[in-house]
Amino acid sequence: MQTLVALMFLLAPAAVIYLAHHQAWARKIGVVVLCYLSGLGIGGAGFIPERALGVAPLVSELTIILALPLLLFCLNVRQLSSVAGKAFLSLLFAVAAVTSLATLLFFVYRHDSPAAADLAAMSVGVYSGGTPNLAAIKAGLEIPNARYLAFHSLDALVGAMYFLFMLTLGVPLFRAFLPAAEEPVPDVGQTAIEGVDQDDYRPLLRPGNLGQAGVAILLAALVVGLSLGFSELVALVYGGERNSAVLIVGLTTLGVLFSLHRRVRALVLSYRLGMYLIYVFCLSVSSMVSFEELGRMDATVAVFLLVVVFGGLALHATLCRLAGVDGDTFMVTSVAAVGSPPFVPMMARALNNPGAILPGMTTGVIGYALGSYLGISLGLYLRSL
Predict the structure, then answer these.
(1) Largest Cα–Cα distance in the chain?
(2) Mean per-residue pLDDT, 302-328
(3) Cβ distance 102 to 120 under 8 Å?
(4) Which of 69, 149, 248, 384 could form a disulfide with 220 if both were Cys (CB 3.0 to 4.6 A apart)?
């Protein structure tokens, strides 16, 4: 049964891609959004047997760590110099927005909810870094399991709402509200990516292309192996378990280093392979949302999450407009902050701007590093008031 569920996750995006190529309405919605909605439907309808519930987390973890280097292989690192300053500035605005709103909500609810300081801390940590930071904040502040699980479960739903908005209405809205992005630096590999239909996966099935696809997968597997070894080494030196943030740093760094070689950048099929794995990731991760658990939550948790995410998004966009940060940079850094680096490629795909992946990934990694410190520090300070 577990094998069948895994095959469903791996093959369902192919059906979605076929649908998008043959139905205008599906093409308009987009493959990423359809995969997200399909996952929510699969999880909400209870199609996954209880004994196979562990398949979705495993598939999501494996696909994303393999997808990240595949997506980075074809990128032109020289493009980072033109957006790096704006990307870091946008990340600073994102952190400032969620921190200020979470602190404001603490003062609103401090007398009505004993959990206000913990909710503020978790909100800042998870929305300036990512879900791995949430576990670190729970341990650092000794947050009760019930409170942590309630926040984590609703976080999955609110996160799905945020991503669906950003991938659909957010693109035209923020491109109209914010300045246009600068033209990317031309590059052979990059031009090859942008000059074709990125959702046409038939080239992967042609016998003449199997060699290139195989080389790309082997290189990605090498990057994954080295990154896992590095994260295990760090865990061994400093004690404790392997850290997801260290793994992401390793995958990103090695993927970028490999992309410096022109022959690696010429493996243009690696981008399609990586994006297909991203579609599998979208479907599997969204299938883990539990609507039953969401119905038993304290309304205060929902208020914190909705205000910090969507209020923080509006405040972040306003600050970027005042500073002249372009729309594409804002959107990828917002996704990196609200979600985590693995979600950046989805946003870059919706923007049809592969060059936006690198600044988004870079700021996302920095957010990983900052998230736990910010969350724990804010929680301790607010508890002391």
Answers:
(1) 67
(2) 91
(3) yes
(4) 69
**∠222-36-182 over CA atoms, to 5°?**
70
What global pTM score does this model have? 0.66
The beta-carbon contacts of 32-35 under 8 Å, at least 24 apart in sequence, are 32/167, 32/278, 32/279, 32/282, 32/346, 32/349, 32/350, 33/164, 33/167, 33/168, 35/279, 35/280, 35/282, 35/283, 35/286
Amino acid identity for residue 152 in this structure: H
pLDDT in tens, 322-374: 999 999 989 999 988 887 676 788 788 888 887 788 788 777 767 766 777 78
- What is the token pair recorded at 16? 């979605």
pLDDT of amino acid 194: 45
Q: How confident is the model at residue 193 (pLDDT cuts 50, 70, 90)?
A: very low
Q: Cα(347)–Cα(36) distance, rounded to whole angstroms? A: 13
Tokens describing residue 138 = 């729970």
pLDDT digits (tens, 9 = 90+) for 263-283: 888 887 887 888 888 788 878
Let me know the angle formed at the C-alpha of 354 by 350 and 358, rounded to the nearest 5 degrees.
115
Give me the pLDDT at residue 41, please: 84
What are 196-249's pLDDT values in tens digits? 445 567 777 778 778 888 899 999 999 999 988 988 888 888 776 666 667 777
- pLDDT computed for residue 189 by the predictor: 47
3-state secondary structure the chain: CHHHHHHHHHHHHHHHHHHHHHCHHHHHHCHHHHHHHHHHHHHHCCCCCHHHCCHHHHHHHHHHHHHHHHHHCCCCHHHHHHHHHHHHHHHHHHHHHHHHHHHHHHHHHCCCCCCHHHHHHHHHHHCCCCHHHHHHHHHHHCCCHHHHHHHHHHHHHHHHHHHHHHHCCHHHHHHHHCCCCCCCCCCHHHHHHHCCCCCCCHHHHCHHHHHHHHHHHHHHHHHHHHHHHHHHHHHHHHCCCCCHHHHHHHHHHHHHHHHCCHHHHCCCHHHHHHHHHHHHHHHHHHCCCCHHHHCCCCHHHHHHHHHHHHHHHHHHHHHHHHHCCCHHHHHHHHHHHHCCHHHHHHHHHHHCCHHHHHHHHHHHHHHHHHHHHHHHHHHHHHHHC
